[in-house]
Fold Serpentine Receptor, class H.
Amino acid sequence: MTSALEKYYATNYTKCNLEYNFLASWKGVAYPSHAIQVISLPFQILAFYVIIFKTPVAMKNVRTPLLVNHFFCAFLDLTLCTLSTVYFFLPMYGTFFVGVLSWFGVPNTFQILLVWLMVLLTVGSYLYFFEGRSSILVQNKFRITRQKTRVIYYFLFLIPWMSSILYVVKFIPEDQDAAKQFALTLHPCPTREFFTFDVMIFLADSILIEGFIWIFPIFGIYSASFILFQVTTLIYYICIAPSITISKDTHHRQKVFLFSILLQCFIPLTLVLCPVFLVFSAHLAGLYYQTMVNLTVCSAGLHGLAESIAIVTVHRPYRKAVSQMATEFKRRRRAVQVLPFLANHMRHSVTMRQSF
């Protein structure tokens, strides 16, 4: 901490009426996130197992997109909960990390790029999942059949993501001490972590902040439009204008699978988008609570857990496979418990015979 920050901490900051709040501290985002990862890991492994080994023949054409989507969802969960757990100061646009990579001294800039990359790949995997499913439908007039067209399509999808990260990285202030002084004019009473951790301010200009506030939702809507378009075409060509060449049974299975994948994706995305929307709306309204931001980060860490549980529950073949695995586990457990009883019974019988 520089002399200017030390002076502010010793004088101005003492006037802030801040009481210790576990959820607002670094522990309030680090400990729950790490616990979420421990709980999520078995479910993520289970989801990998059923996708790879229990996918029926009827779902073979969607196994790869489903596996890719689950892989990046799980890796995003690993990044947010373990590798680069984020502590974010929203009104000050500053951050530091309390994950494993910080223990090894990995710079904040690299961790920001890592988190951004994983968010990009995860969102892209949802697009790949729905686009792959949509392109299978022969009756779909908008399906992508040429590899060159697909490359252009995904490049257009990536433009705002690449532009936004370049926007942030380019304007990261070199003089972080001056940036922190500017940040304190935006929010004079941050949590003590602002002074005790290596916080990096990545936007320290009112005009740049104002631009980012409006660019971020515009880019979000732009990216979401790609996924929503694929979802819309799926709903239209399966539920409204299905192919007349397929059987009723095939059409029914398509509708069931469509409902399953929509539910599978809707559940985890809700855990992320709703808290982010609430925090962003509160920020625009001039309200800010560090507890709210930390809970949003923890909620984002639940995305992988919810996605894994959704996979093994909403799809009937996977649900049936998990049920059979649970039944087999209970059967073997009972068998293991019975073996000592039988052994004791046999020893007792032998002892009784010898006594006679």
